[in-house]
Design goal:
The complex is a heterodimer of chains A (160) and B (972).
Chain A: H1 2-23, H2 30-34, H3 37-44, E1 58-61, E2 69-74, E3 79-80, H4 82-95, E4 99-104, E5 107-108, H5 110-118, E6 124-129, H6 151-159
Parallel strand pairs in A: 2-4, 3-5, 4-6
Antiparallel strand pairs in A: 1-2
Helix pairs in contact in A: 4-5
Chain B: H1 14-25, E1 35-38, E2 54-58, E3 61-64, H2 69-72, H3 79-87, H4 89-110, H5 116-119, H6 123-135, H7 139-147, H8 158-171, H9 174-199, H10 212-219, H11 225-232, E4 236-237, E5 269-270, H12 280-315, E6 319-320, E7 326-327, E8 333-335, H13 354-359, H14 361-368, H15 370-373, H16 381-395, H17 403-406, H18 418-437, H19 450-463, H20 472-484, E9 492-494, E10 501-503, H21 505-514, E11 524-528, H22 535-545, E12 548-549, H23 550-553, E13 554-566, E14 569-580, H24 583-590, H25 594-602, H26 604-633, H27 643-663, H28 676-728, H29 734-748, E15 752-758, E16 761-769, H30 777-787, E17 789-791, E18 798-806, E19 809-817, H31 821-828, E20 842-843, H32 846-853, H33 855-872, H34 879-889, H35 900-903, H36 909-913, H37 918-927, H38 937-943, H39 963-971
Antiparallel strand pairs in B: 1-2, 2-3, 4-5, 6-7, 7-8, 9-10, 11-19, 11-20, 12-17, 13-14, 14-16, 15-16, 18-19
Classes of the chains: A alpha/beta (160), B alpha+beta (972).
Domain RNA polymerase Rpb1 (chain B): 2-119, 185-270, 277-906
Region (Disordered) (chain B): 631-699
Family (chain B): Belongs to the RNA polymerase beta' chain family.
C-alpha cells in the first residue's frame, strides 16, 4: 500500500516538475508530461514497486538557447544535507550545466540552503520539496498565467 | 395636455399629472424620456393580467405602470436615475423637488391612514393560522429528537427519558447546544414561513389596493413584509447572538418553564402576534432580543467607525492620474486603469443598459455631443485595433495586449475594455438583424442604425471615464466603510446541515482587512469533486478526512484503584478499562480499523496521559502550597472546605478564567461586564497569584515544550517503527501488533505495568508509589482520550459534502472546518486519481492562499472574502472599491493589513503621525531624518495647503522670466 502510494506520488511530482521546467522555457516533450501512471511504473518502478529516484533525474535544453541546460536532481535521502548538494554540484560540473533543480522528499538542512546561496554566482539552483510538487499550483483557478517579461518588454513597460 | 375625460367635466388621470411634470422639466434641447422599467408592486395584485407593474415612459409620457419605490426610490435604473442619466443633475434635482411637493399636496387633499382591519385576518385566515400553530405544537420536541440520531431507533416510551438525559448532556456543552439550537430553529423557521405563506396576502380581511398596510409594504413606502407578518401572523423565533434563548443552569429558560422543556415557546419561539397580543414569556423573550439589537447598534457604530478610519488613512492618498493610472501619494502604481476599465463608479451605471440608450439615443446625442469631440480625439485607430483583437480572440486563445494599454482611452475614441466592446458588438449585431427582419411598420422615427449605436457607445464610454484627480482611495474606503455600518455585529452563519460555522459581519471584515489575520477564527476550505465520483466514495473520503479522536470510539472509561503491598513498599495500582463501541459500529461510522486505533495507543496516548497526570500533580502541589500559605494569613479569599479536590477544581477554573482575561484585548477590559466586586476579588487573587506566577509560567513553558518535543520525537521514531512493522508483513496479526504497542507504551510511560488490547477495548494497568496524592484518574483519562487523535489532517476538524445545483446537474462540493492546503494535497493527491479537483481548492484563509498559491490568488481571495461578507447582507458594493482594497493589500507582494504596522510602509511621516501612536512615528521620523514631501492629503492639511486630489490636482503655471532678465529690468 505504502509503496503504491509512493509511486503515485512520485508520478505526480514528476509530472509537475516537467511542467515546471517547460514553463521555464526548456524543451520538454508532451509525452513526458502526459505519461500515465502505468507507464510511469513500468519505466521507473522496480519489481517490489519502489521507485528509484536516481532514474528520474533528467536534463534538458532551453528552447531558444540550446546551450543553456537545466538538470533536475531527485534526492534519495529524506533530508538533504551538504553531501547531497556536493553530489549534485559534481554532476553539474561534470556536464557543465549552469542551472539545477533539486527535488527532495523530506526537508532540507539549513547548511544545504547556504550552499545554494553560496553557489548562486556559478550555478542557478532551485529547491523544491516533493510535497510541494504534488499539485501544480499554476493550474489553480485563482492563479493567472505568469509570464516573465523579456528585457525589451520590460523596457517598453517602464517607458510608458 | 388635454384631459382624458371630457364629460361630465374635464378630468385628468394621475398618470397625466406625472406626464405633465415630465413635460415641464424636460430641457428644451432634449427629447422626451423613453423608459421601460419594472414596478415593485407585482402586477397581479391590481387584478388578473394587469400590466401596471411595467412602467413605460414614451417620449416623456407615462403610458403604463405605477410609480413606487423602484421608480423614485433608491433603486437602480428607476425614473429619477434615468432622468439624471439623460438630462443631468439639475433636472433630476428639480424632478425630485417637484415630486416631493406634488405628493405632499396629494396627501393634504386625500389623506392616508392605516387601521385595524388592514391588519386583521379573515375568519378563514385565522382558522388556518390556528390550525398551523396547532399542528406545529410539537415541533420543538420533534426538532430536539431529530437532533439526536440515536433517538430514532428508540421506542416511543423510552424517548422522553432518553431525550431528557441527552438534553442534560447538551446543557453542559455549548457546542452541542448550538447544534440543538440550529436543528430546532430550522424546524421552526419552516413553521413561521408556512403561517405567513398560508395567510399573508389572501387571508387578509382587506385585499391589496384597499389595504393600506399592504399598500405601504408592497410599494416600498415604509415597512417590509416582515413587519406586516409580525403584526398579523406570528413573531417567530427570537434570537440572541444567533442562538435561541440561553438556558440557565437549572435547565430552564424562564422560571415558569419546566427544566429541559422542549416546547418551542420555551426556546423563545413566539407563535403569537402583535395584533392579538403576546404571552408574558414571549414578551420577555422579545424584549431580550430587542435589547440585544439596541446594544448591538450602540457597539457596532464604534467598530465600523474605526474600520472606516483605518481604511481612509491608508487609502487617502490614492487617486487617478492623468495617464489613467491609479497611484498612491508617492506615485507608486496600484492599478494601470481604475477597476481595470478606467470607468467612474457613478458614471458607468447605465453603460450596459443598451436598450435604454438605444431608445433615448437623441437625448444622449444632445447630452454628449459626439460631433464636438471630432478633431480632438483620434476616432479610428483604437476601434480598428479592437476589431482586430476581438476577431483574434474568437479564433485562438492567445491574448493580445488589451486596447486600453496601447491607446489612452481619453484620447482615442473606441479604446474601451474588451468586455464592453464585446457586449456592444453583440447588441449592435442584434440591432442590425432586427433592422432586416422586422416587417415594415411605419414608425415615427427610424430605428437606430447599428453604426450610430456603436459610435454613441464609444463616446459614452469616453465620457464615463474617471476624472483625473479623483480620490478613488477615499471612495473605496467610504464605499466599504458606510455599508459596514449596516451590518449587524455578531452574526454567525451556517451553511447547510451541521456545516461550517463562519465568522461574518464586522468581525470577519476586521479579520480580513484590518488585521490581515494569519489565523482566521473560522478557517474553512471548499473544493470541487472531480467528475464521475460516486456519492459513497465522497462519504468515505469525508470520513477519512475528518479528525477522529479516541474519545469518539471509546464508549466507557472505568478506573479501579487498589492498594497493594509488596514486601515493605506499598503501591497504588490503577486499572484503566477503556471500552470501545462495537467494532462494526465504529467501522461504519468512522471507517476506522482496530489496528489504527491501536497505533494511537503506541505513543500518543501514553505521552499525553503522562503530561496530563503531571499537570494534575503539579496543580495539586501548587494548591497545597497556596493553601498552606493561606492558613497562616487567615485570609478567606477563596477558602473552600472540602479537601484538595475541590480546591483544585476551583484553582483550575480560576486560572483558566484569568487566562481568558489575559488573552482578551487590553481595550476590552473596560467592557463593563465585570462588576466592581468581581474586580476587587480578582485584584486580591492577583496578589496571591503574582508571587509564583512567573516561575510557574516559565516552568510550564519549559515543561510543555519538553513534552511536545518528546511526543514529537517519540512519535517520529514510532512512525519509523510502524513503517518497518508494516513492511514486514501487512497481514500480521493484531495480537502481535498489540504486543509491539505494549512495549512502546511501557517505554513511553514508565508507570505502566501491563497493557492489553482487543477489538472491543483495552486495559491499562498503572502502578504508582503510595505517596502519590489522590488522583481522579477518570477525568484525566477522558481528557486524554479527547486529545488523542487517531487520524487527522492537521488543522482540519471535519469535512462534509454539499450539493450545488448548477444548471440541472448536481455538483458536489466539499467543505471543511479548518484549513490546511498542503496537508490536503498530501492526503488527497497521493492516490493515482484524486477524488477532488485540486485546481479548485479554495480556503477562506487569505494568508494560507498567499503562501501556497501566491499573491494573485491572495488578491482574488481578498476580493471574494470581502465581497462575501457584504453579499450575506445583500449589500451591493462596487467591485472597483474591493479591487482597490485588494490591490493595496497585496501591493508589496505580501498581505498588508490596514493597521499601524501596515501604514509604516507609507513614506509620509505626517500621515503616519496623524493616524495612531503619533509620538512614536514622529520620533522615528526624527531619528532617521525622515522628511515629508507634502504629497499626502494629511500632510497638506497639516500645513494648511490645498489637497492634491480632486480639483486640487492641477495648478496654474505661468512662464517665469529668467532671473537675469528680471534683474536687468530692475536695474534699467
Amino acid at each position: 500500500m505504502a509503496d503504491q502510494d509512493e509511486s503515485a506520488k512520485l508520478w505526480k511530482v514528476n509530472r509537475t516538475i516537467h511542467e515546471l521546467v517547460k514553463d521555464r522555457g526548456f524543451q520538454v516533450s508532451d509525452d513526458e508530461i502526459h505519461m500515465d501512471l502505468a507507464t510511469f511504473r513500468s519505466h521507473y518502478a522496480n519489481n517490489a514497486g519502489s521507485v528509484d529516484r536516481g532514474q528520474l533525474n533528467f536534463f534538458t535544453n532551453h528552447q531558444n538557447n540550446p546551450e543553456e541546460q537545466i538538470f533536475i536532481f531527485f534526492s534519495d535521502e529524506r533530508s538533504v544535507g551538504v553531501k547531497t548538494m556536493r553530489k549534485l554540484l559534481g554532476i553539474l560540473e561534470e556536464k557543465s550545466i549552469q542551472r539545477g533543480i533539486i527535488v527532495f522528499p523530506g526537508n532540507m538542512t539549513p547548511s544545504a540552503r547556504k550552499v545554494i546561496v553560496a553557489m548562486a554566482s556559478q550555478y542557478k539552483l532551485e529547491e523544491f520539496s516533493e510535497s510541494d510538487l504534488l499539485v501544480n499550483i499554476t493550474h489553480h483557478t485563482l492563479v493567472p498565467k505568469h509570464e516573465l517579461l523579456t528585457p525589451e518588454q520590460k523596457k517598453t513597460l517602464l517607458e510608458k | 395636455m388635454p384631459p382624458t375625460i371630457w364629460k361630465p367635466k374635464p378630468l385628468w388621470t394621475g398618470k397625466q399629472i406625472i406626464s405633465t411634470v415630465m413635460l415641464n422639466i424636460t430641457p428644451s434641447n432634449a427629447h422626451g424620456l423613453n423608459l421601460d422599467a419594472k414596478a415593485k408592486v407585482p402586477g397581479q395584485l391590481w387584478g388578473m393580467g394587469s400590466s401596471e407593474d411595467k412602467v413605460i415612459f414614451m417620449d416623456g409620457e407615462l403610458l403604463c405602470g405605477v410609480l413606487d419605490k423602484s421608480a423614485f426610490g433608491a433603486t437602480e435604473y428607476g425614473l429619477v436615475h434615468s432622468v439624471y442619466e439623460l438630462y443631468g443633475a439639475d433636472v433630476a434635482g428639480k424632478l425630485l423637488g417637484v415630486l416631493s411637493r406634488l405628493f405632499t399636496k396629494f396627501l393634504q387633499h386625500r389623506g392616508f391612514t392605516c387601521r385595524m382591519d388592514d391588519l386583521a385576518l379573515t375568519p378563514e385566515g385565522n382558522r388556518r393560522r390556528e390550525q398551523l400553530i396547532q399542528q406545529g405544537i410539537n415541533l420543538g420536541t420533534e426538532g430536539a429528537i431529530e437532533n439526536f440520531p440515536s433517538l430514532t431507533t428508540a421506542t416511543e416510551q423510552d424517548k422522553p427519558g432518553a431525550l431528557r438525559s441527552l438534553l442534560e448532556d447538551v446543557l453542559r456543552d455549548d457546542q452541542k447546544m448550538a447544534g440543538l439550537d440550529m436543528t430546532v430553529k430550522s424546524k421552526l423557521a419552516k413553521l413561521t414561513k408556512s403561517i405567513a405563506d398560508a395567510v399573508m396576502p389572501h387571508g387578509l380581511l382587506r385585499q391589496f389596493p384597499d389595504n393600506h398596510m399592504q399598500a405601504m409594504t408592497q410599494s416600498g413606502a415604509k415597512g417590509s413584509a416582515v413587519n406586516a407578518q409580525q403584526i398579523s401572523c406570528a413573531l417567530g423565533q427570537q434570537e440572541l447572538e444567533g442562538r435561541r434563548v440561553p438556558v440557565m443552569v437549572s435547565g430552564k429558560t424562564l422560571p415558569s418553564f419546566k427544566p429541559f422543556e422542549t416546547k418551542a415557546i420555551a426556546g423563545g419561539y413566539v407563535a403569537s402576534r402583535f395584533l392579538t397580543g403576546v404571552k408574558p414569556q414571549e414578551f420577555f423573550f422579545h424584549c431580550m432580543a430587542g435589547r440585544e439589537g439596541l446594544i448591538d447598534t450602540a457597539v457596532k457604530t464604534s467598530r465600523s467607525g474605526y474600520l472606516q478610519r483605518c481604511l481612509i488613512k491608508h487609502l487617502e492618498g490614492i487617486r487617478v492620474h492623468y495617464d489613467n493610472t491609479v497611484r498612491g501619494s508617492d506615485s507608486s502604481i496600484y492599478q494601470f486603469h481604475y477597476g481595470g476599465d478606467g470607468l467612474d463608479v457613478t458614471k458607468q451605471k447605465h453603460l450596459y443598459q443598451f436598450d435604454f440608450i438605444a431608445q433615448n439615443e437623441r437625448s444622449l446625442v444632445n447630452k454628449y455631443r459626439p460631433g464636438e469631440i471630432y478633431g480632438v480625439v483620434d476616432p479610428q485607430q483604437a476601434s480598428d485595433y479592437m476589431k482586430k483583437i476581438l476577431k483574434r480572440k474568437l479564433k485562438s486563445k492567445k491574448l493580445a495586449d488589451p486596447t486600453l494599454s496601447l491607446f489612452n482611452p481619453s484620447r482615442y475614441l473606441g479604446s474601451t475594455s474588451e468586455k464592453f466592446a464585446e457586449k456592444v458588438d453583440e447588441y449592435a449585431k442584434a440591432l442590425k438583424a432586427k433592422e432586416h427582419s422586422e416587417p415594415p411598420i411605419k414608425r415615427r422615427r427610424p430605428t437606430l442604425a447599428a453604426k450610430h449605436f456603436r459610435q454613441l457607445m464609444n463616446v459614452k464610454y469616453m465620457r464615463s471615464l474617471v476624472d483625473p484627480g479623483e480620490a478613488v482611495g477615499l471612495l473605496a474606503s467610504q464605499g466599504v466603510g458606510e455599508p459596514s455600518t449596516q451590518m449587524t455585529l455578531n452574526t454567525f452563519h451556517f451553511a447547510g446541515h451541521g456545516a461550517a460555522n463562519v465568522t461574518l459581519g464586522i468581525p470577519r471584515l476586521r479579520e480580513i482587512v484590518m488585521t490581515a489575520s494569519r489565523k482566521p477564527k473560522t478557517p474553512s476550505m471548499t473544493m470541487a469533486i472531480s467528475q464521475g465520483v460516486s456519492a459513497e466514495d465522497i462519504d468515505a473520503f469525508c470520513k477519512k478526512a475528518g479528525r477522529l479522536t479516541l474519545s469518539q470510539v471509546v464508549d466507557k472509561v472505568t478506573v479501579k484503584e487498589t492498594l497493594s503491598v509488596e514486601g515493605a513498599s506499598r503501591s497504588k495500582e490503577f486499572t484503566i478499562d477503556l471500552v470501545f463501541y462495537p467494532q462494526a459500529e465504529y467501522e461504519v461510522e468512522y471507517d476506522v480499523q482496530p489496528s489504527e486505533i491501536l497505533s494511537a495507543f503506541g505513543t500518543k496516548f501514553p505521552l499525553i496521559l503522562k503530561r496530563e497526570i503531571q499537570n494534575e500533580l503539579k496543580k495539586l502541589d501548587q494548591d497545597m502550597k497556596t493553601q498552606m500559605a493561606e492558613i497562616g494569613r487567615g485570609k478567606a479569599v477563596r477558602d473552600q472546605p472540602g479537601g484538595a479536590e475541590d480546591a483544585d477544581e476551583d484553582g483550575d477554573k480560576d486560572t483558566s478564567k484569568r487566562k481568558d482575561k489575559d488573552d482578551d484585548d487590553v481595550s476590552e477590559i473596560g467592557d463593563g461586564d465585570a462588576t466592581s466586586a468581581k474586580r476587587e476579588r480578582q485584584a486580591k487573587e492577583q496578589a496571591t497569584y503574582e508571587e509564583d506566577e512567573d516561575d510557574e509560567d516559565a516552568e510550564d513553558d519549559i515543561m510543555k515544550q519538553y513534552d511536545d518535543d518528546e511526543i514529537e520525537a517519540a512519535y517520529a521514531s514510532a512512525d519509523e517503527k510502524d513503517d518497518t512493522e508494516k513492511l514486514r508483513s501487512v497481514s500480521e496479526s493484531l495480537a502481535k501488533q498489540a504486543s509491539a504497542v505494549e512495549q512502546l507504551f511501557m517505554e513511553n510511560f514508565s508507570y505502566t505495568t501491563s497493557f492489553t488490547f482487543n477489538d472491543s477495548g483495552c486495559t491499562i494497568a498503572l502502578r504508582f508509589g503510595s505517596n502519590m496524592p489522590k488522583l481522579l484518574l477518570v477525568g484525566i483519562v477522558e481528557k486524554t482520550c479527547l486529545k488523542t487523535v487517531i487520524r487527522e489532517i492537521p488543522g482540519i476538524t471535519d469535512c462534509f459534502k454539499s450539493k450545488d445545483d448548477k444548471g440541472g446537474e448536481t455538483v458536489y462540493r466539499l467543505t471543511t472546518n479548518g484549513s490546511n492546503i498542503p496537508g490536503l494535497w498530501q492526503f488527497a493527491c497521493s492516490d493515482a486519481d484524486s477524488l477532488i479537483d485540486e485546481k479548485s481548492i479554495y480556503s477562506n484563509d487569505v494568508y494560507a492562499l498567499l503562501i501556497t498559491y501566491g499573491v494573485e490568488a491572495a488578491r482574488a481571495a481578498i476580493l471574494r472574502e470581502v465581497g462575501g461578507v457584504f453579499d450575506v447582507y445583500k449589500i451591493d458594493v462596487d467591485s472597483r472599491h474591493l479591487e482597490l482594497i485588494a490591490d493595496y493589500m497585496t501591493f508589496d507582494g505580501g498581505y498588508k493589513p490596514f493597521n499601524r504596522s501596515g501604514i509604516s510602509t507609507n513614506p509620509s511621516p505626517l500621515l503616519k503621525a496623524s493616524y495612531e501612536t503619533t509620538a512614536s512615528f514622529l520620533s522615528d521620523a526624527t531619528l532617521h531624518g525622515d522628511f515629508d514631501d507634502l504629497t499626502t492629503p494629511s500632510g497638506n492639511i497639516v500645513v494648511g495647503r490645498l489637497n492634491l486630489t480632486g480639483t486640487g490636482v492641477f495648478d496654474v503655471v505661468m512662464p517665469v522670466e529668467p532671473a537675469e532678465k528680471l534683474q536687468g529690468l530692475s536695474v534699467a
